[in-house]
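Supplementary notes for students who missed Thursday's class. We covered one full example, reproduced here. Read the sequence, then the structure, then the short commentary at the end.
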Amino acid sequence: MNLTLEESTQLCSLMADESRLRLLLLLEVHELSVAELTEITGLAQSRVSTHLSRLKRAGLVQDKRIGAAALYSATANGGSAQTLWEMLRSQIDDGQARLDRERAEEAVRARKHGQTWAESVAGRMELHYSPGRTWEATARAVIGLLEFGDVLDLACGDGVLAELIAAHARSVACVDISSTVISAAQKRLAPYTNVRFYEADMHALPLPDASFDYIFAMHALSYSKSPQKMLNEAARLLRKGGRLVVATLNAHQYEEAMRAYDHVNLGLAPDHLRRMLKTAGLEVEQCGVTSREPRPPYFEVVTALARKR
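Structure (token representation):
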């Protein structure tokens, strides 16, 4: 990011206002009108409008018309301003911002005007909380229909996925290079006798060929400097007919976010991942973008399913 002194000064001026930062934090989570933002923040309507105008010119905010009203939301098209905002955003932890979010939830609930909860969020239901309606609850219900055989969980972290599938698998092998997260996984999975743990490099595992029916690489590729080598290793470990399940970020340019989460690459585009899976000797059954996060920088998730020939 190369800026002149004047451009740098303008960027710093844009971000040097607490009220604008409050508005950006709110608009990352909700689409809100000027009236709602005024009610939530306690700022004068004229100030809210002025701030929104500046943020919109900088490419950080967008608006859309809903009848006679305009709803504002954050966008990821702010160029240099976006880069600076992402750096600031990762460091903000503020009581006023938390209070603003609580008030925003109340403002959104007040829109319902006699509709049922489902009617009020129709078309975007997956983005809203409802008691008992979580992805974890849904996954636990559906996963009971499956039997996994012998499973390998690459870059297993603290064992969230392994805990979901352990009761439905003959065995689960959890692999991670960090002793800290392996220790946490062992505590989480202590009740299961069919789970074993390896503190090891996922690119070269001390495991025999054709050992597994399923291998999960859920965002493991984000921590690989040699993705092809990791996929080749997964192919070696799969039995004939076995399946590799991959989830990773789509190719992106957000280097600051990458560093914040210790990722070592900028994601993989679906076509690139598909070619790598084929190079590893796997038959690709599915590979594409399956979700897009609802808040900036709107990361997309690529999922792939591949079978050992």
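Commentary. The longest strand covers residues 238-249. The longest helix spans residues 95-109. If anything here is unclear, bring it to office hours.
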